[in-house]
UniProtKB/TrEMBL annotation:
Keywords: RNA-binding
Organism in which the protein naturally occurs: Holdemania filiformis
PROSITE patterns: S4
Signal peptide: none
RNA-binding in keyword set: yes
Pfam families: YlmH_RBD
InterPro entries, alphabetized: Nucleotide-bd_a/b_plait_sf, RqcP2_RBD, S4_RNA-bd, S4_RNA-bd_sf
Protein name per UniProt: RNA-binding protein
GO molecular function, one term: RNA binding
Lineage start: Bacteria, Bacillati, Bacillota, Erysipelotrichia, Erysipelotrichales
Start and end residues of each RNA-binding S4 domain: 174-234
Repeat as UniProt keyword: no
Length: 250
């Protein structure tokens, strides 16, 4: 069931896949749908999208992170094949979390690119996948951890509940290394190590430039520490440090 896999950072392989999708669409004059792509992969492809074909991104719901690229000869043909699967659960005795669902799907010999956003909310599991895989997942994913489940196609396209909290951080500058040091409460040298180890992304793109200047509405992700959005500056301290306002995903 696995599809050809490319890593998050392998932009050359990703661009080659895009060229293949475009060629298929032009040759067959039929819609072509990619696998589910991460936000960083989507950003990497945007500069190379064709001018002579219609296209759109779709993840099944408005706030989806992982999306498919749909290419078509005409706008009306950009039809999605994404299906929403849900299962009602009771977490009174067994608690199921996102890693449990992800692991169960991977145990079905599925690649991460074959399904989109998934989450666990009170009383329900939600999984987005493709039409061609929906029945397979429903028939084979019947147990997660110690909990028996029954997945069904949903007529509703559920939206994830995104929770954020306000966070005020004092930083010496809006350089990326200074911002990471303030957000993660670590030394600037440690922050630089994280950046060079490619554990930091800005607007879903991995950066290794410690002196990158952050701007309002930039989304900053630090693997192992969380995701933050820079909202602006409140002012400066007496020692000329910047009082920066963030939103933190929780």
């Amino acid at each position: 069931m696995r599809t050809p896999h490319f890593s998050e950072s392998d932009e050359a392989a990703l661009q080659a896949r895009l060229e293949d999708w475009i060629d298929q669409c032009r040759t067959r004059r039929k819609p072509v749908r990619s696998c589910f792509l991460s936000p960083s992969q989507q950003e990497a492809l945007k500069p190379f999208l064709p001018w002579d074909l219609a296209y759109r991104w779709d993840g099944g719901c408005a706030e989806a992170e992982r999306k498919k690229l749909i290419l078509a000869p005409e706008e009306d043909a950009c039809v999605s094949d994404i299906v929403c699967l849900t299962a009602r659960i009771s977490d009174k005795f067994v608690q199921v979390k996102h890693p449990d669902v992800l692991g169960a799907l991977m145990n079905l010999d599925l690649d991460r690119s074959q399904f989109g956003d998934l989450w666990v909310e009170p009383g329900r599991i939600v999984i987005y996948t493709s039409e061609e895989l929906a029945d397979y997942v429903c028939m084979n994913l019947t147990r997660i951890h110690k909990l028996s489940i029954r997945l069904e196609r949903s007529s509703m396209m559920y939206e994830p509940v995104v929770k954020k909290q306000a966070l005020t951080v004092i930083v010496t500058a809006l350089r990326l290394d200074c911002v990471i040091a303030g957000l993660c409460r670590m030394s600037r040298a440690k922050a630089q190590d994280l950046i060079r180890a490619q554990r930091v992304s800005v607007n879903h793109k991995i950066l290794d430039e410690c002196d990158f200047l952050c701007h309002n509405e930039d989304t900053i992700s630090v693997r192992g520490y969380g995701r933050f959005v820079l909202k602006g500056q409140r002012g400066q301290t007496r020692s000329d440090r910047i009082v920066a306002e963030f939103e933190q995903y929780v």
